[in-house]
Amino acid sequence: MKIPRVIGLLGLALLASLFGRAAYAPTPISDSGKDLTLSLTAGVTRDSNLFGSSTGEIETTVYHVEPKVAYEASVTDQTFVTAYYQLTVDYFDNRPGEKTLYSHNVLARVAHAFSPVTNFSLTDAFVVAKNPESLLAGIPINTDQSYQRNQFDALFATAPTKKTNVTVKARSIYYDYRSASLGRSLDRTENLYGLVGDLAVLPEVKAVAEYRHQDVTYRSASDNKDKHSDFFLAGADYAAGPKLSASTRLGFEFRRRSGERSETSPYAEFSGKYGYAKRSFVSAGYVHTLEESSDVVRFTDTQINRFFVNAQHPLSSRIVASGSLSYEPSKLQGRRGRADLDETTTRFGAALTYLAARNWSVAASYDYDNIDSDDAARGQVRQRVGVSATYAF
To answer: Rounded to whole angstroms, how far apart are CA atoms 390 and 284?
Structure first.
């Protein structure tokens, strides 16, 4: 049984967010039709707030070059592999300290189908980010917010009957900041395990029950920062053909905090996607959950309401417009004796991509970040405008 090539492309697309350039907007994906692809991207970006500071912003021009090698192929009728490596070289005309930074992105994925109804996949993504896209809020001007991040995903899915499916999944994410002070606060491992069962109640509707367990373990002062959570969720998945799909999960999270009060919090997740034409789609969603804070001294975690929209639409046979918007009203939950803080984060990205030829593309992008916080020191406004060209062979 041959695994369709689209499986590999979709897997790569889902992980592309880990390795994207400054643009938040989705990037058109084109299949070169080859197992091995080499590409070179070069561009320039104007950044209005290099370190994402609330005061004393540093504006700079960034020149970047990105060679990349990617491989994806069916190595057997039942096994598909994907791998790539990308080097990013950034040069800043106005930056304290190092003016040339080198970042690395590595991804490896293998998917295997044991039978038409049983499959398994492993994915590992490693990043050395020297010029992070989204900077930490509330951090005093720091010329080094670089970090290493490794994400490992495993998934096993099978269908015991014609109407039921069972999925077992696991994810482990490791953060390692280069700065000693940031590392003492934020270096951690986040492990997430899940068990999902679904039942087809209609040809296009599946009822879903899901359990997740999460462990957040900090490398320093873990007895005051670690968390352990259990999620109990129910919902439905809707798929009316290849163009329209939607998913919902509702439930609660029981979170146990080391050295702090435990909490039971509602959890909600809604998402949908509509592909209304070739190379055209709009997707949107909402998530209510708890996430880690960039200030672990004052706050235990952050209660987030995240609304997001992504869209892509071809303006002509060669020009594609894309955009992304996320709006996140949130509450930073104070530790004992400290007040909560309200904070709203808005991120917007837009891009125009000109597909000049099969191997050539040129893109222009704009990105906007705004953090409006009760604590003025956590505020941030950042704008980036860039152009780039990519050649693949």
So the answer is: 28
